[in-house]
Write a structure and sequence with these properties.
The chain has about 300 residues and is of the alpha/beta class. About 30% of the residues lie in helices and about 20% in strands. The strands form two sheets. It has a nine-stranded mixed β-sheet, sandwiched between helices.
């Protein structure tokens, strides 16, 4: 079967043009808050710190996180071939435990980004995940799960949130799916600018889990990768941000779109182009403003 045939033969509910209503103001406020944790994951002092460190963003793009009673329980970076980086934080103000993954920064990250072959994550029958994204999670899974479970046990009643931007969003998506099947069914996912992470079987499996919030922005090229013609599709729904770059997002500028392929959203803005990268940075704010310059090999 060709890849064109795969798209044509998808069940009709997976290939849809339905557009949902505007998001309510309270939900929009939540989106604008959680992206600040994704932004904080780019700051070196947050993913390469010590337990008890208070989260800060030198770029000034996580003021609500900085104002909260929040501290790092566990951080990870520069320990794997994929250089998966991020932190687990406890937010006492908002009664939340946050598992955050940093987006692309190091040379090893870009290598992980470019590995588009499939691998079997053993999450469900027929599931196939993008090799680099799954490897990025798998290499830190045991230690992260150990600290996350201990933190959940120590903070009963706290919401568990898994999130990231760009590559971090892809890893967060797979991590949330995996963790939900291993004792954390209520973990909420906030994936900003995520690439496609797997095939239709995997997308359906994750979509069926509750608590998924996947965001795209106008013509951002990253969510268009890997290509549909390679068999990759997105989890549903898509929260499609239509606001221009560097502007405040209002409730009528976030459309809720259903389906693994929805031409009314980011997918319908054409093939990915490097000239469209400005849209990749702006998710309610400049989400990756805190990353350092260059393309280091170690961090």
């Amino acid at each position: 079967m060709t890849l064109s045939d795969r798209i044509v033969n998808l069940p009709i509910w997976k290939l849809t043009l339905i557009t949902g209503p505007d998001v309510p103001p309270s939900e929009l406020a939540q989106f604008k808050f959680w992206v600040q944790y994704a932004a904080a994951a780019y700051c070196h002092d947050n993913y390469a710190s010590k337990a008890g460190h208070k989260l800060t963003c030198w770029a000034g793009n996580c003021p609500q996180v900085e104002a909260a009673d929040t501290y790092i329980v566990y951080d990870y970076s520069n320990t794997t071939a994929t250089d998966t980086s991020g932190f687990i934080a406890v937010d006492n103000t908002n009664k939340a435990i946050v598992l955050a993954f940093r987006g692309s920064y190091s040379a090893r990250n870009w290598i992980a980004d470019s590995e588009f072959p499939y691998t079997d994550p053993k999450l469900c029958d027929g599931c196939e995940a993008e090799l680099g994204f799954w490897s990025s999670w798998e290499m830190v899974r045991n230690e992260v799960a150990k600290y996350l479970n201990a933190t959940v046990n120590a903070n009963p009643g706290y919401e568990v949130v898994v999130l990231g931007h760009s590559l971090g969003a892809a890893v967060a998506t797979l991590a949330a799916a995996d963790l939900r099947g291993k004792g954390l069914p209520s973990a909420n996912l906030y994936a900003f600018a995520s690439p496609r992470v797997g095939n239709s079987a995997l997308a359906s499996y994750i979509t069926a889990q509750s608590g998924n919030y996947r965001f795209t922005h106008t013509n951002d090229p990253v969510p268009k990768l890997p290509l549909l013609t390679m068999g990759y599709v997105h989890i549903s729904p898509e929260y499609y941000i239509t606001a221009p770059n560097n502007s405040t997002v209002s409730t009528n500028q976030v459309q809720v779109l259903e389906g693994e392929i929805n031409w009314n959203g980011n997918t319908g803005t054409g093939m990915p182009s490097p000239t469209e990268f400005p849209a990749h940075h702006w998710y309610f704010e400049e989400a990756d403003a805190c990353k350092g310059p260059g393309l280091p090999l170690k961090i």
